[in-house]
Every structure is written in structure tokens, then in C-alpha cells.
Amino acid sequence: MSVHASAALELDDIQSGVLSPRPTPYTATYLVFRVDDRAHGRELMRRASAVVTPASDSVGARQETWVSVAVTFHGLAALGVPRASLDTFAWEFRQGMAARAEALGDVGASGPEHWEAPLGTSDVHVVFVALAPDATRLKAAVDRARPAYDRLPGVTAIWRQDCYALPTGTEHFGYRDGVSHPAVEGSGIAGSNQLEVPLKAGEFVLGHQDEIGGIQTPRPEVLGRNGSYAVFRKLHQRVAEFRRYLRDNATSPEDEELLAAKIMGRWRSGAPLALSPEHDDPELGADPHRRNTFLYGRDDPAGFTTPSGCHIRRANPRDAAVAGEVRLHRMIRRGAVYGPPLPEGALEDDGADRGLMFAFIGAHPGRQFEFVQSEWMNDGVFFGGGSARDPVTGSHDGVTGFTVPRRPLRRRLSPLPRFVVTRGGEYCFLPGLNALRWLGDLQD
């Protein structure tokens, strides 16, 4: 740990994918590579440093188009990073997501033994992500990145996932996605909640001071500084089952939409219950300056408007009274849809694979992603909810239901099935641009 903090972020050394909100609409491609030849892997890093988009590149169309490059622990080892350096990375990253499955609730149908190959294996070394507002600009971004990995026989492409925005602008369960984005000191990018004080850069970017005054940096500093940890997860959504659950627990179509809002904490349009408790407000849901600017602690401490156990309040309790310090567990989250939509109104699964490629970015995978996943998504003790799990993404076993706070009597819904199944995932490191060049210049 260093003893000094940087006064400003070095945006030309930070990958744009760390700090930039996802564009709306969007298209994206994930490409996974295995490094079979160390020299070719290092050449890949050299080339990548020339095509990765820096956070300083925020002028014009490229503000919403970027290429990011992430490396797994096995990937760093395949590149020949010395053991003394590898040992300075976060221990969760060193273990890998498959090894952390039980702690994350990835059991049963979500267990690594059922994951899509090669996710969760030691073959996953490098992940390229290209993202753009439309297919034309995505193709241009992929074409710009192609020379980095083209004609390197010692680097093998082993997996690809294409993502896109649904015509509805929602994810497969029908909710507007990509609503919340935290403000990061020094980034120059406004947060989506105007009531939230910007977070210290060290919560998301290594080598900078975090909320408790610490500075985490893998060694050597040229490798760790201005990097971030990224958690990628492929999440299959059981859309028909979700729809049937809402229908079976509702008394009318209007009540079905209210239950959908109580489970998520937002109406389908993105309008939050906190600002529109009685009915959906599509105009509010479409307004990025208003739809996320609210708190819980002052106006709804007991969760009568926005249930304490709903998805968005679990993911970010904001100012609500919960066990622990909320700001220490904030993350940058991004979701990208994959697979065809289930036809509107269909209540039976058609066998297609559909869901979200989810990315979580931060500097502390243990107290950010893993804490939120294990303590907030898959438990309820932090807000007094006992063993209740997140109604949308929790690792349900058909035993625990969902409770809607209500006067004079709360409303209990039937036991929840698992609506989201993990199909694979990886813990990755997003190096700074200087670090990519350093990796390219490694010598045995």
C-alpha cells in the first residue's frame, strides 16, 4: 500500500470502459482468448495498448464507443508475470470465480459444473469487450481491435458473446436497464443520483485513495496503478417462469404490474416507486436526470413505498439504515442483453438462451461484488429481513417467498423459484494503458 494519494485521475491511462456509462441504445461483443505462446500473448498486450480507448477520449462519437481489454489471473500467469507480483493482487481474483461459487450462491443449476465452456476454466486468459451505440460503430470498433489479435497463432479465440439492446429498451424481464451510475471523483462524469456525494476514485481505480483512506495497488506500481477489477457474469433469465410467478400472485393485470414494481423497486419504465409510488410514470422513467435522484432513509425508512427487500434497494440501500457502511460496497454495474426476446405474453419457455452479460467494476472485489452478492442479494439480515433473498437474482430454492410491507397487514407472496441462472463468469483485471505496455515488454 502506498502512502500518498494522487490529486487527480490520469484519464489517459485509465480504460474508458472503467468509468464511462453504457450508451443507450447499445451493441456489444465479448471475445475471450487463450494464450498458448507467451511471446504472442505479450505482443497481444502491446497491440492492445494501441486500440484500447482511454477515459480521456470523451469527445464526439467515441465517447460512447470503446474497446476494453481485461486479463484473468491465469492470463497474467500465462504472460509470465512474476509470482511475487501475482501474489499482490486481490485474493478473490487469484482464486477465480468458479472457486468462489458457493460463497456467491452459484450452486445447483448455477454451479460451475453446469457453466458454458470455457467460462470458469484456466483456459480463459484475455477478454476483449467492444461496445457502441449501434451495429455500424460496433463493427468499426471490432475492426479497429482486430489487428491486436489477428495473425497471432499463439493466441486462440475460444468464446464469443454478442449483445444488443432490445427494441423495448429493457432487459428480458421487461424493466428499463442501465439506470444507475455512481459519480467518481476526478472522472468528470456526473453520477445519475444528484443527491449522492461522489465516491473516492480508489473505490474503482487502483492506486488512488478510497473511502477509508487506503490505497490499494498490485505491484509493481506500473502494473497496478490505474487498473481496476472487473467481474463478468453470463446470467440466463427464466422469463416465462418470471411472468408466471407475477400472474399467479396477482389479482388483476394492474396488480401484476404493481407486484413487478414492488419486486424490482421500479416500474417497468424505470420510474422508481420512491418518486411514483401509486402508478407508473413513463415520462419520469425516461428522464435520466430525475429517475435516479432519490433516497430512502428520510422518506421511507420502513420500506412501505420501496420494499427493503426489493432488488434495487438491496443492490444499493442508499441512505437507508442497514448494517454496514453503504459507500464501501458501491460498484459500477453494467448489463448487456443477449439472446432473442420471448414473445410478449408468452408463459411457456421456448428453449432459447437469453439473459444478461453483467459487468461489475471496482477496486475491492471482496467488499464490493462478493459482499453485495453474498450479504445483500442472498441474505436479508442487513436490513432485518432474516434469510430472505433478492426476489429477482437471488439463489432461490423454492422455499422462501417475498413480503410486501403494507398497512394494516403485510402481503406475503408464494415461495420464489430461481429466475436467474449463472451460466459462467470470470474475475478479471483491467490494466491501465501503461500497464498494457509493461505487459507487452515483459522479458523472461
Automatic annotation (TrEMBL):
InterPro entries: Dimeric_a/b-barrel, DyP_N, Dyp_peroxidase. Keywords: Iron, Metal-binding, Oxidoreductase, Peroxidase. It holds the Pfam family DyP_N. Residues 13-144 form the DyP dimeric alpha+beta barrel domain. It comes from the Bacteria. One of its GO terms (cellular component) is cytosol. Its cofactor is heme b. One of its GO terms (molecular function) is heme binding. Belongs to the DyP-type peroxidase family. PANTHER family: BLR4509 PROTEIN, DEFERROCHELATASE/PEROXIDASE. NCBIfam families: Dyp_perox_fam. This is Dyp-type peroxidase family. It comes from Streptomyces atratus.
